[in-house]
Write a structure and sequence with these properties.
Rossmann fold; about 375 residues; two-stranded antiparallel sheet; 2 domains
């Protein structure tokens, strides 16, 4: 880790030839030299959505053009329900129509949806073109923009069609969080809490002490939360890029996601935000772990209280148990037909468990209090 300017931090994801920096700080979008320095040719396709283009895309396009870069803006509709084939094809159509070649760099300017779909387009267009992540939501800055997971959704499961494909650069301009709607901001806090609960007890303690400051977007607290989250993710990704480690590895970053993805998919993409579903999913995972005798009641209480204090749901919506089991059964992390749960065993420690039977999970869900 290095410190550039007083309000800028640079972290590194160490993956040999695929290593790249994560820049975190204010006013990064007003410095086009950062992006230009990572381009192999003076041409970019800027993928964003209809809401963000007037907010940030127009200005960034202007700065890049004044630096001698050709810019092709591609505006997708806004929302998780548009992380799909038609939106992906919209990117391909624009790239082909404008004869974009393998040296054209795709820039993802937006939240997790834009980052995931742009990364997947970059991984597959002409068998792979360079791309840069410029995450504009808290969730994307601390989680989805780092680590090279790219995907689109399918009606039968979230993120089921995708590729591991690393960016050249992640540029997290914290100033973009000022315009983030409150619900989107809270959604990002779920992923921040996940790092503490799953992997770092000290960070969890810090989050408990600073949740009020984070709720009001205190710049100092926010800067630390983003930096620490990215540090944890960068280290885990460097050790287990493709989620193949036997001891959990990168899979532990999915704490709350097996339940959460099922909630998201069952309700219909976009009804609950990803972080809302993950917040609820972490509570469910902690409750399940407690019932299995692995997590103390005091730790369950701390986890639940912190998630609640961040303004996230702690009880699942009304979804039939067989529907939840169906979607949980299709989760990417499953192996050999078993549902793989990520369960916290204490604050800051978690395990992968594929031994819990569907009947046991079903009985747990039947008894889980609904909203």
């Amino acid at each position: 880790m290095s410190h550039d300017a007083p309000n800028r931090t640079t972290l590194h994801v160490s993956l040999g030839q695929r290593s790249y920096p994560i820049l975190i700080g204010g006013s990064l979008l007003s410095d086009p030299a950062i992006v230009v320095g990572h381009l192999s040719a003076p041409r970019v396709a800027l993928v964003t959505n209809e809401k963000l283009y007037p907010l940030y895309g127009e200005a960034l396009s202007g700065l890049l053009r004044r630096s001698g870069i050709q810019v092709l803006p591609i505006c997708l509709p806004d929302g998780e329900q548009f992380k799909d084939w038609p939106a992906l094809n919209q990117i391909f159509d624009a790239l082909l129509e404008h004869a974009c070649d393998r040296k054209t760099t795709l820039i993802a300017l937006g939240g997790g949806v834009i980052g995931d779909i742009t990364g997947f387009a970059a991984a597959t267009y002409q068998r792979g073109v360079p791309f840069i992540q410029i995450p504009t939501t808290l969730l994307a800055q601390v989680d989805s923009s780092v680590g090279g997971k790219t995907a689109i959704n399918h009606t039968r499961g979230k993120n089921m069609i995708g590729a591991f494909y690393q960016p050249l650069l992640v540029l997290a301009d914290t100033d973009t969080l000022k315009s983030l709607p409150a619900r989107e901001y809270r959604s990002g806090l779920a992923e921040v809490i996940k790092y503490g609960l799953a992997l770092d007890a000290q960070f969890f303690d810090w989050l408990e002490a600073n949740i009020d400051a984070l709720n009001v977007r205190n710049p100092t607290a926010l800067a630390y939360a983003i930096k620490r989250s990215c540090e944890i993710k960068a280290q885990v990704v460097a050790e287990d890029e493709r989620e193949t480690a036997k001891d959990g590895g990168r899979a532990l970053l999915n704490l709350g996601h097996t339940f959460g993805h099922a909630v998201e998919t069952a309700l219909g993409y976009g009804v609950w935000l990803h972080g809302e579903a993950v917040g609820c999913g972490m509570v469910l995972a902690a409750q399940m772990s407690n019932q299995l005798g692995m997590l103390e009641a005091s730790s369950l209480s701390r986890a639940t209280e912190l998630i609640k204090a961040a303004g996230l749901p702690i009880a699942m919506p009304s979804i039939a148990t067989d529907v939840m089991l169906e979607y949980m059964g299709r989760d990417k992390k499953n192996e050999g037909g078993n549902i793989r749960l990520i369960l916290p065993t204490e604050i800051g420690k978690s395990i992968v468990d594929a031994t819990v039977s569907r009947a046991r999970i079903g009985a747990f869900l039947d008894a889980a209090p609904a909203v």
